[in-house]
Amino acid sequence: MKMENKRAGGILYLVVPCYNEEEVLVHAAEVMRDKLGRMASQGIISPKSKIVFVNDGSSDNTWKIISDLCGCDDVYSGLCFSRNYGHQSAILAGMMAAKEHADMVVTIDADLQQDIEALDKFVGCYQEGCEIVYGVRNDRDTDGFLKKLSANMFYNFMHLLGCNVMSNHADYRLLSKRALDALAEYREVNLFLRGLIPTMGFQSDIVYFDVKKREAGRSKYTLRKMVALATNGVTSMSTRPIQFITILGFLVSLFSFVMIIYCIIDWFSGRNVPGYTTSLVVSLLMGGLTIFSLGIVGEYIGKIYLETKARPRYIIESVIWKESKDTAQKGN
Ligand code: UDP
Ligand code: MG
Hints:
By secondary structure, this protein is an alpha/beta fold. Helix content is about 45%, strand content about 15%. The chain has ten helices and eight strands. An eight-stranded mixed sheet has the order 7-5-6-4-1-2-3-8, sandwiched between helices. It binds uridine-5'-diphosphate and magnesium ion. The site of magnesium ion (MG) has 5 residues, from loops. Keywords: Glycosyltransferase, Membrane, Transferase, Transmembrane, Transmembrane helix. It is a multi-pass membrane protein. This is Glycosyltransferase. Its main location: membrane.
């Protein structure tokens, strides 16, 4: 049942994580402001809607550009991390700061890869009563072969582990104030929002959007960052890898037991074969499995260690925050 325009005209805050985005930021800021301006003039969102940039410890001029933008136009606000904490922390910080002022928050990348025109659909779903709207890519044509392959492997593995992760859902998503208040209750340090947010429930919907080529600059997701995100995704969402180890350990023990009986019978029958190859293969296999299993268990223990320390998820060094005036109109 549709609730016609019951939530029309809400205040929308766009949260934009930025890491070394000096090449694209000025243009992206204009495009985003214009879009909010158009939506506000059509009465879809409130003219008090805003854009919040989160500088994730950039080493280039990103923060300088954000400060200049904030100085020129009240539609922009900025948060600056004390160092690079990563995309997930930047999104979280922006959402937590925005939730006090906004009815809904949309997180979107700074590089304009995610089609900003899809914002109308996100807001449309919110107006029909959704608390969470997930953006899902229509395709991965803009990604290279390796990125496509690793993303597919990751999503398949997550599904194998029974995790409710939406394939090809980037962090382009809308959360209502209610959903943000719920998210604020989660205290985990190692964040994997794509897995965490679907566990909150709430009425939700999907918006499919086209992915474009990066307007400028290069991808900030290095291989190391992608591996860290994927490991975090697995360890924060599932303990099944440890269960797999238990099953594997049981099967190997069963096999060893059969081998022991076989060797004893062999010994009694007087057939004393040197068995060099067998011993070598078995000991190498066992060594490999043991170290691999220890590694997986160690990964979880490491995460527990970090979680128990409960360090801050990010430190905000500077804030430029503009109180809500009717600013989004300026985009027209
Ligand atoms: N980003 C960030 N911190 C990081 C890496 C990336 O805030 O440590 C931001 C980046 O500025 C961009 C978004 O996260 O706005 C997505 O990054 P990118 O476009 O480089 O990733 P890709 O689209 O290549 O997966
Ligand atoms: Mg990108």
